[in-house]
Amino acid sequence: MTTDVDPWEVFHYEVQMYSAMIKIRETIGSGKNWKISIQPKSTLIITPKSNKETSIPNKDLRSAMNAFIESKLLHIRILAEILLERGHYPDDVKLAHLLPNWEKDEELGILVNNLEKAYGTRKSKDTPCWTINKMVVHFTSFRLTSFGYRKIFETIDTPLKLCIKRVAELGGKPAILAEIHSVM
User: What Rg do the C-alpha atoms of the chain give, in angstroms?
Assistant: First the structure.
């Protein structure tokens, strides 16, 4: 990988975006509902708590919540692809760019393996990887007008956070460590 950009800066940015989506959802969301709805008259509408204090129409708030959810899914995918070294192009950042000898750390090896099991693959139907690709990243015939992502977040959040935490510890990156600790 040849670039003037420090891969740690990119990784830190992705961790910041991932944790921000968690914090925003906890601040303005209601309940544990992580459902995206694009139907104009959906039976289930995510209405942020602050709706009473603003003049933003419900449909716009629903669209904003959908954007937050999709953003979290996108940043999960990016972080998982980095940590699982799934990049296919020479300029894709991989875990080895952050920690060249990461395989020597037994704890990180176990955490990466746990993340891989939780995340799945693009060919394993109904895994987080497959679902994110089919329902968010690519415009496929599998897309629905409404879909709940809570199960994906419940499956992937802990293994992803633990992996990020260990990578930050091994890399001596206190800012990344503080960021991930803020959502653990």
Answer: 17
First to last CA, the chain: 31
Orientation angle between helical segments 174-181 and 7-28, nearest 10 degrees: 20
Q: Is the dihedral of CA 24, 95, 112, 119 positive or negative?
A: positive
Query: Residue 79 in contact with residue 176, Cβ under 8 Å?
Result: no
3, two tokens:
């670039």
pTM (predicted TM-score) = 0.81
Tens digits of residue pLDDT in 81-97: 999 999 888 888 899 99
